[in-house]
Amino acid sequence: MEKISILTKRSIFLIFLASSAANPLFASTVYIYSASERQQERSVTHKDIQDLLISKGLENSIAVKKSHALFKNNQNINLKLSHLCKNPNLALSRDKVIEAFAKYALFNKECDMNSYDSLVGFVQSISPNLNQRQLSAIKEIVKL
Question: Is residue 104 within 8 Å of 54, Cβ to Cβ?
Answer without folding.
Answer: no
